[in-house]
Amino acid sequence: MSTKVKNDSLQLVGHTPTAAKSSDDLVFVNGLPILIHADIAADALGGGFRRNVVAELAAETGVAFSEGDQLWWDAANSVLTKTPAANVYMGICYEDKASATALAKVDLSANRPAAGGNLGVFRLAIDGGAAADDDWVARVPLTVIDVIAQHTGGAGEASDTLQLKDGDDNAISDALDWSGADNAIVRAGTINDAYATLAVGDTLRVTTVDDDTGSDVGAGVVTVIALIG
Q1: Which of 33, 53, 94, 191 stands the most exposed, by the fewest C-beta atoms within 10 Å?
Q2: What is the pLDDT of residue 67?
Q3: Which residues have CB under 8 Å from 146's CB, separation 6+?
Q4: Dist. CA 96–CA 152, nearest whole Å
Q5: Domain with CATH 2.40.300 in the chain
Q6: What mean pLDDT do residues 208-226 have?
Q7: What is the C-alpha separation between 4 and 151, in angstroms, rounded?
Q8: Which option is the CATH number for 3-107: 1.10.10, 1.25.40, 3.90.120, 2.40.300?
């Protein structure tokens, strides 16, 4: 039995169990973990959640989990584990778990990263107004390969800029011109490979610069494209 702790934009997967299942039971369909949506009678068609679900499940004790850790399902002991072995991949640890804690939260939305093989798209909102640093913490290892920004809250101001950095203020992208019209899109001209790779827990930072210090930086969305793993 599991506890569903978050769900939005849910993806339902059809499932016909040979034995009755209860809401929030964990099952595996074609090797993928599914969280049962509502009670299903034996041999009846029902459904389960596969995407955009964070589930709280039994976890091995004696081992601490950190947010962003890859987790597997140890079927022999019916617990989450950090040990791959022959276990089934579940997703990414949603929040830290102490060593003695017997429950952990896992994000079933997260595909297993193949080193450098999967593309990730991350959208970072820029509120606008005063110049600021907007930070986002990486929950998977990633390497930035492109940065695209769009004005969504009106036109920008002359000579204002926007730049993607790491948490130590090292520049990942060049400074993008953030003075364009509403809906205008700008794109990084360069990516500094010395700082483009982040580990789980590292910070991605979008820094805006207000040239006239008038607290009139344009609002928008920054899309970061990265290789996962």
Answers
A1: 191
A2: 87
A3: 187, 188, 191, 224, 225
A4: 35
A5: 3-107
A6: 91
A7: 36
A8: 2.40.300
